[in-house]
# Entry
Amino acid sequence: MTSLTQLPIWQALKQQRQTIEQQSLRDAFARDPGRAERYSVKAAGLMLDYSKNRIDDTTLAALLELARDCELESQRDAMFTGAAINRTENRAVLHTALRASGNTPVMVDGEDVMPEVRATLAKMKGFVEQIHEGQRTGYTGKAFTDVIAIGIGGSFLGPKVATEALRPYAKSLRLHYVANVDGTALSEKLKKVNAETTLVVMSSKSFTTQETLANTQSAREWFLASGASQADVAAHFVAISSNVPAAVEFGIDADNVFPMWDWVGGRYSLWSAIGLPIALAVGFDHFEQLLSGAEAMDRHFREAPLEQNMPVLMGLLSLWYSNFFDSQSQVILSYDHYLRGLPAYIQQLDMESNGKGVALDGTPVDYRTGPVIWGGEGTNGQHAYHQLLHQGTALIPADFILPLQSHNPLGRHHQMLAANCLAQTQALMQGKTLEEAKAELADRNLAPQALEQLARHKVMPGNRPSNTLLMDKLTPATLGALIALYEHRTFVQGAIWQINSFDQWGVELGKVLGNAVLDELEAEQAPLAQDASTNQLITLLRQGKL
Ligand code: F6P
# Structure
């Protein structure tokens, strides 16, 4: 495998950075009235304005050439057609099959997976409708009012964020998500619900995750302690897993287990039965619309030429800053309260996928891979971390996400929200020069030296890149498209970096050591065999006081 950094186009991009370094975005906009229109693209109900990025036509052409030289298109096609691109686990990567509506077979190991996908969707539909229509009730015959959804990582974030985002479409069931093994998480939720009218949905692809097993076990104990019998568990507990036998052995009724498959990665799984809590929250029709939105983005990713391909452009821009500007983090800013959880979702999606240090052939990479992803809700962040975005020493590319219409058109609120969003992208881009800062202070009657000094604190470098992503309204379809966009953006970068975006070996060591420490914590008197610091901490925990 050729090292990426040895490719002539990589070297050309390094040169390109020197050129771009000399240019200001402010000037680029002043020079070229067509810039915004030229650097914008629409797909699947979304619009991306990427004109406030530090690029020109030469940069873009070079980035696209890099994508071609790295065979991005054939790598993409291999994913869609079920090749085992997750090479360290020898698995296909087919979250796209979960939202494919046509009749095209998708083959894994010589078998079409689509009939099973459709059968599982039909089973979910039937289950959700029975619950919503009150045909399926709790063990005392009362309709369900609450769902406790237990899962962690990819078996938690997608459903939770989608449920939150689609709140305007919510039916009457109340959803409560529990992920952390901290007993407080479950206890606080259980205080709010009544066992007779509560459904527990346990989501674990592997069915081995400590946190999820412990939370489900405790939820079952709570259920039985409420007066229900062992036989009543079947009416109240369902599971989603690719390990159906383990779920049955755990005590979940076989009919209540919804399957998923090893060709769906945890962090790409909300489209599978892992999305059952979403369908319970908003209805199966809306869940289907979520799938169609994602499918529309899949089609775009597969069919649009690279130069107009939204996930490709976003992936390349992100890579441009990571690899050529030494940027170490990127921020996702949701200007929509319903999308406040999205940054955490993208954080897991991207960091678990692209937080890798070796190329597919096992050799260490000599370039930066996945950035730190973080973010939050606008305008809240403007009064917190935006200061660092504007004047800090780090270059942090930002994605601003804004629906044009609000679900809650309250007075002027949406106009204010939108104005803040646009103004932030503008301020990051244009900054403020020393001359402008001085001019602002002109009427303060300051001595020249004091004026100069104060003005320096007010200078904003500008040239801070951002994308703006718009949609008419946050709907199930636009949410589906948005999430699929980020999935594919992550793929694009992983493909160019020649890493495996679909395994997560890095989380394993912590799990193994966690079990060893747990054994020692629980064996109260046994000698300790860890390092001195860990032994000291275990001793304190055994004592329960300092
Ligand atoms: O954090 C590691 C991880 O393996 C994630 O990739 C996954 O989504 C999560 O744990 C939960 O795993 P499972 O669905 O198997 O319980």
